[in-house]
Amino acid sequence: MDKSQSKNSLFSKIQNDFIGLNTVYTLADGRKTERVYLDSTASTLMMGAAYNVLEKFFDHYSNSHSLLHFSAKITTDQYDWAHQRVLSFLNADPESYTCFFTGSGTTAGINRMARVFRDYRKERDVVLVSMMEHHSNDLPHRKHSGEVIHIPLDGHSGDQPGCINMGALEQSLKQYGDRVNYIAVTGISNVTGIINPIHDIAELAHNHGALVLIDGAQTAAHMPVQMSGHKNPMQDIDAFVFSGHKTYVPGSPGVVVCRKEILMAIEPEELGGGMIEDVFVDRYIIKDDFPDREEAGTQNITGAIALAAAIEIMDSLGMNLIYKEEDQLICSAIERMKNFPEIIIYGETDNKKCSRAGSISFNIKGMHHGLVAAVLNDYFNIAVRNECFCAHPYVKELILDDMLDAITDIPEEEIESKYKLIAGMVRASFGIYNKLEDVDTLIRALDKIIAKKEEFIELYHVDEKGDYVHNTFRLETENYFSVNNALNNYLKH
Ligand SMILES: Cc1ncc(COP(=O)(O)O)c(C=O)c1O
């Protein structure tokens, strides 16, 4: 077998080994079918290889930070390895960068880094973010770091926005000058999948004395990242944050990779056990070595080890190959959706002007996003997400024109509240396990929904919470899974 053949067979082995690929539900029309999972941008399915590693590791599980008993030695070694694995995955030089794990996904890491950057350069009180940020890469900076300026997006040539507008970014860097502490920008939008040029952003930022924090929640699993080692070091990234649950390991922690010199210059933001050299009643001495210094308390050791296993697999496939495979799905879905005049796809759709990865958000004209998502689920077993995806300013900007057309009869003071009821989109998102067949299934479903729009509208009503609910069909969740049922089964056998 030649090298590319063996890569392809490894890809197919990994692609077909995720937990939940064969989950079957009974649909509103009585058919039983396998779920098509198009909600990876929210959380990815679990990689079988990582699950397997975890099962084996549990035989040896113990707390880390002790080398006295055998299991503690094994756990400590593997937990250390997990940190190194993340650094090499992101091409971050271990001499200059450290990796540490944090609590609740990317959000915890970004809150932490906002406090780190604030304390590192107290005299600077402005943060620049793009208009396409998830709330988790906007609100932490507002709370911890000072004034947040939202940089507009590029109009390219069409009427749909693309990535961050580099001209506007430069203008703000000049306008706010020494007040700018850092730029916090997403590598890939969780709404449109549009990719930002993070290294050009870094170069521009560094040339103006600003630091760069990349929200890598949507980037880590979808494309290669090179934090350091650029020919032009100005293009290197200062800090990168991502989530294990979006990188094929649910239950794993958030991850921060940051330049050591920044962390070393200030006291760690979190204190406790494990990161202390010595404690006296009137003072304490913090460890100098990384990552211990940044990891107070017992970390999510098993999650970190499983995440590193998934990363090892992704690296052995090659992030370029993963990006290319997923790009085919995204391009095929967009091109085919464009054939429907009833579908509005948000964000620049010309791949040559603006590449995407992960997500496509859209609406069907004349149908509420909640209804489309419900029908895709109930009649086609396609799991998608709808609403504003924790990116309200961006979604508002993308749908503003349609919204203004739709609400001409509403007094201005009511626009905000009414707007909340109807604003939103449907998002289809992809991961390693998706195949062109999944795109086919989505396109066939959209075709049928458009053709039978009036019939579907009749089958649903809106409940008191504003959700679209089928008039007669309900999924009884306990028929599929409940902790008590699983426990009863376990106790019976
Ligand atoms: C771009 C982006 N940033 C941040 C987050 C927050 O991630 P987490 O839920 O892991 O905290 C998300 C989650 O969807 C995201 O898509």
* Rg result: 24 Å
Beta percentage is 15-25%
The residue ranges in which pLDDT falls below 50 over 5 or more consecutive positions are none
Physical arrangement of strands within the biggest beta sheet: 6-12-11-10-9-7-8
| Coarse shape | globular
Helical residues, percent: 40-55%
Class from helix and strand fractions:
alpha/beta
Helix count equals 16
Largest sheet: 7 strands, mixed
Task: Describe the model.
There is one protein chain. This protein is of the alpha/beta class. The chain contains 16 helices and 21 strands. The chain has helices spanning 3-15, 48-57, 70-89, 105-120, 139-144, 166-176, 198-207, 260-264, 301-317, 319-338, 369-380, 392-406, 412-422, 436-451, 453-459, 483-492, and strands spanning 18-19, 24-26, 32-34, 36-37, 46-47, 97-102, 126-130, 147-151, 180-186, 211-215, 239-243, 254-259, 276-280, 283-286, 343-345, 359-364, 382-383, 385-387, 425-429, 460-462, 468-470. The protein has a 7-stranded mixed β-sheet, sandwiched between helices. The chain has a 4-stranded antiparallel β-sheet with strand order 15-16-19-18. A hairpin with a 5-residue loop joins strand 2 (24-26) and strand 3.
Keywords:
493 residues, alpha/beta, 7-stranded mixed sheet, 4-stranded antiparallel sheet, 40% helix, 17% strand, globular, binds pyridoxal-5'-phosphate
Topology:
Elements: H1 3-15, E1 18-19, E2 24-26, E3 32-34, E4 36-37, E5 46-47, H2 48-57, H3 70-89, E6 97-102, H4 105-120, E7 126-130, H5 139-144, E8 147-151, H6 166-176, E9 180-186, H7 198-207, E10 211-215, E11 239-243, E12 254-259, H8 260-264, E13 276-280, E14 283-286, H9 301-317, H10 319-338, E15 343-345, E16 359-364, H11 369-380, E17 382-383, E18 385-387, H12 392-406, H13 412-422, E19 425-429, H14 436-451, H15 453-459, E20 460-462, E21 468-470, H16 483-492
Helix pairs in contact: 2-9, 3-9, 6-7, 9-10, 10-14, 11-14
Bound molecules: pyridoxal-5'-phosphate (PLP).
